[in-house]
Amino acid sequence: GEAASELRWLLGALREPGAMPALGAGGSLATTINDVIEELTEHGYPTAVTIDGDLDRVPVRAGEVLAGVAREAAANIERHGAEGRPCTLVASIDDNAVDIAFINEVATERASSSGTRSMGLLGATERLATVGGTMETRREGRQWITRVTVPLAGLS
Predict the structure, then answer these.
(1) Do the Cβ atoms of 137 and 149 come closer than 8 Å?
(2) How wide is the angle at C-alpha 55 spanned by C-alphas 101 and 51, nearest 5°?
(3) Which of 2, 49, 52, 119 has the maximum number of C-beta atoms within 10 A of its C-beta?
(4) What is the Cα–Cα distance from 64 to 99, expressed in whole angstroms?
């Protein structure tokens, strides 16, 4: 059937060196972002998404790192976010960089501890550094913003 021929195509493409890296990376990043949004929404954090640009342009290594960071940011929202309040994920991709921001409301009773960074985000910062990326977290009123940037110039 259709699934079998698609699988054969995928396996063939994987065997062909250099045939699929961009698709593989963007695919996994796009898939992870979709998974993360579904999971957040299911767990009581309705998430709106804006993607400007093509995730498939993100190189493999950067895509893998960003996928991991997206999962970590989502876990952080579930730990510290105000349940039932909307979240936003904004991704922007151009020739120079990938920029992803996660915005969520902080649960008021946990607001005092929101300045402490989780170990997960610390690990994410270290992983980002391996592809020249940076992470910035800040609080604006009730909102917590996690912003991740990875330069694409010179990455392949």
Answers:
(1) no
(2) 45
(3) 49
(4) 15
Other beta carbons within 10 Å of 79: 11
Pairing of strands 87-93, 47-52: parallel
Distances from the Cα of 8 to the Cαs of 11, 47, 50, 60, in angstroms? 5, 35, 33, 22
Percentage, residues of the chain above pLDDT 90: 59
Record the pTM: 0.75
Confidence of residue 28 (pLDDT cuts 50, 70, 90): confident
Q: What is the DSSP letter of 28?
A: H
User: Domain residue spans in the chain?
Assistant: 21-151
CATH 1.10.760.10 fits 21-151, yes or no: no
Q: Please give the distance of CA 11 from its chain centroid, rounded to a whole number.
A: 26
Measured between alpha carbons, how far is 61 from 44 in angstroms, rounded to an integer?
A: 31
Q: Which of 57-61, 69-73, 111-115 has the lowest mean pLDDT?
A: 111-115
Confidence at residue 121, expressed as pLDDT on a 0 to 100 scale? 77
